Amino acid sequence: MSGRLRVALVGALITGLLLAIAVALMASTGNKALAATAVVLAINVALVVSLQTFIGNTGILSFGHVAFMGIGAFTAALLTIPPAAKKTQLPNLPSFIRDAQVPPLPAVLIASLVCLFVAALFGLVLVRMTTSAMVMATFALLITTYTVLLNWADWTRGSEGVYAVPRVMTPWLALAVAVVFIVIARLLAATWMGLQARAIREDELAAGATGIRVRASRYAFWIISASLMGAAGAIYAENVLAFDAGQFSFATTFALLAMLIIGGRESVLGSVVGAALIVLVTEMFSRVEQGFSIGGFELPRISGTVQFVLALLIILALIWKPDGIVGRREVEDLIPGLRGWAQRSTTPTPGGVPDRSGFGLDEVVLAGKGLSKSFSGVKAVQEIDIHVARGEILGLIGPNGSGKSTLLNLLSGLTAADSGTVELCGVDVTDQSVHSRALGGLGRTFQNIRLFNHLTVLDNVLAPPRSEPHEAAGLLDQLGLLDVASAEADTLAYGQQRRLEIARALSTQVSVILMDEPAAGMNEEESDVLLDDIRALAAEHRCGVIIIDHDLRLITRLCDRIQVLETGRTIAIGTPDEIVQNRAVREAYLGDAVGAEDHEGGM
Ligand code: ADP
Ligand code: MG
After folding, report:
1. Which atom of ligand 1 is nearest to the CA of 373?
2. Percentage of the residues of the chain whose pLDDT score is greater than 90
3. Beta partners for 563?
4. 335 pLDDT exceeds 90?
5. What is the mean pLDDT of residues 146-172?
6. Deepest in the core among 151, 184, 293, 469, taking most CB within 10 A?
7. Every domain range in the chain assigned CATH 3.40.50.300
8. Nearest CA residue ID for atom 24, ligand 1
9. In the structure, what pLDDT confidence band is assigned to residue 122 with cuts at 50, 70 and 90?
């Protein structure tokens, strides 16, 4: 991970350097308006980077961050306006605030803390919502905060706004601020927390099933980004002298989102590029908006020009560059050799996988007892008992719709059982959530592959909480994925994706792994190789395996024991030989199993 932080730091400093060049070019012309624009650009970078910290890492759109900008700005204003000026503007302020005068930097830090507090409270509700409800809630936060700021005239002077905020920003100071924000955002994204947030962004359900705490991760990014936004809002206030609540509403939200979406929301570089582009466009078109003359020809004022152009740019970006101008790339991805240089020798080299031979082989690692589940009348699973011991491979077969996937979902906690219990390594986990069971040593793969698609193969294996970084390369090597370790997961061939799911599950130090049709879609040769690998992995990792497949040939070759389901019930259980001889199985299953079945809709 330290190699990752080093790359992020180098990348952040180069991104900062690009911004510095732009600021220097604008500030050195001697043109006052251009120097002022340079400050606006740098402050906008700080604002967008704060927003990007949330949206980029969690993938959740927030309309609410400008509320924190407003809270931060007013906090800074109330703290830094000289007491004499506050007495005339805001006579009803409580005296401890009216008489206070705090220097600019502490004011920024206090503003940030106030936002942290507000975000921490609101976040408690927010993270309990579904993703789409969260987006709506952030929107409500924006409107509520705006309304409060507008009507709380004793503190904000309502629509008249506050003035005489001491101006401290110069182009170079604003640049320094922007670089600090860029460095924080890049380092944060490069930590394990950032990686987990992006894993959730890619697949919330799969992330939970590897033990990642979805709510905690979102909560952390929500409050961190809100604190950053509050600080950026305070810095905004320390540049504009006067402002009112109207600055913290739709127009600003829209402009910041435009910067983020057009630049590339999943990249800090994208925030900088987007901010530069939009600040330029805004400057140009706000002149048009105010009416101007070309060659003696007077153009009228056209209000709303800036909004119109921003809307147009967003639409064009969404059509041609849905991931933004720079996409998911950071600056080090654009400079050949830079990443390798900064990372030096941290490319994965396969080490050994630890020897787990101390574990007893007959210990039951997972047991379900009397498990039942109905879906609106359909008895998908009825009174099923199932268990697997460490090092044992249990095959689960049965015709389509016989309840195999549902049974795995009950065991892994993805679906709550109507009745029955689940024990993991001797602990009753019936009431535990998916991620708790994962942390307890239960891994799984999905019938429809669910990888963290836009993360690299290595990151897919590193993201789970119990993943051991020094084992990751060895694991990828065992599954034949080391050569593609730095490729994005969704660029892999189908069979490789199946293998990566297994690697990801194994990376969490599993005691038991549940595999839902890992060989589906593979040809006979590929599945033979895969099943050999599974046997070797189960032995090496000393974990129990429950594997679903409908190819009886494969299952009988691979498994120590086989359990046969039909319409939600166990109809047979035994060694492969016993199962092949079993009459009920031959009647119920064999006639149905030979043809390729269409498996849709399972997990
Ligand atoms: P299998 O994996 O053996 O093919 P499943 O466990 O996917 O079988 O499905 C068992 C039965 O439960 C099927 O009749 C299926 O239609 C039903 N079922 C599974 N999941 C759901 C669900 N989420 N909602 C409603 N019915 C479901
Ligand atoms: Mg299934």
Report:
1. 12
2. 69
3. 396, 573
4. no
5. 93
6. 184
7. 364-441+510-601
8. 375
9. very high
Please give all residues whose beta carbon lies within 6 A of any atom in ligand 1, as ranges.
375, 378, 380, 398, 400-406, 602
Indicate which residue's Cα is closest to atom 27 of ligand 1. Answer: 375
* Ligand 1 atom closest to the CA of 403, numbered from 1: 6
Query: What is the separation, in whole angstroms, between the first and last Cα of the chain?
Result: 32
* pLDDT tens-digit readout, 359-405: 555 789 999 999 999 999 899 999 999 999 999 999 999 888 999 99
Choose the residue to mutate in 373, 384, 396, 406 for probing ligand 1, maximizing ligand atoms within 8 Å of C-beta.
Answer: 406
Average pLDDT over residues 170-176: 95
Ligand 1 atom, smallest distance to 406 CA: 6
CB of 411 closer than 8 Å to CB of 577: no
Predicted TM-score (pTM) of the model is 0.89
421 CA to centre of ligand 1 in angstroms: 20
| Whether the Cβ atoms of residue 434 and residue 446 lie closer than 8 Å to each other | no
3-state secondary structure of 521: coil
62: phi then psi, degrees, rounded to nearest 5: -120, 125
Start-end of CATH 1.10.3470 domains in the chain: 3-345
The tokens describing 546, both together, are 């429950």
pLDDT digits (tens, 9 = 90+) for 297-307: 776 777 778 88
Fold of 364-441+510-601: Rossmann fold (3.40.50)
Q: Which fold has domain 3-345?
A: ABC transporter involved in vitamin B12 uptake, BtuC (1.10.3470)
Residue with tokens 């594997």: 547
DSSP 376: T
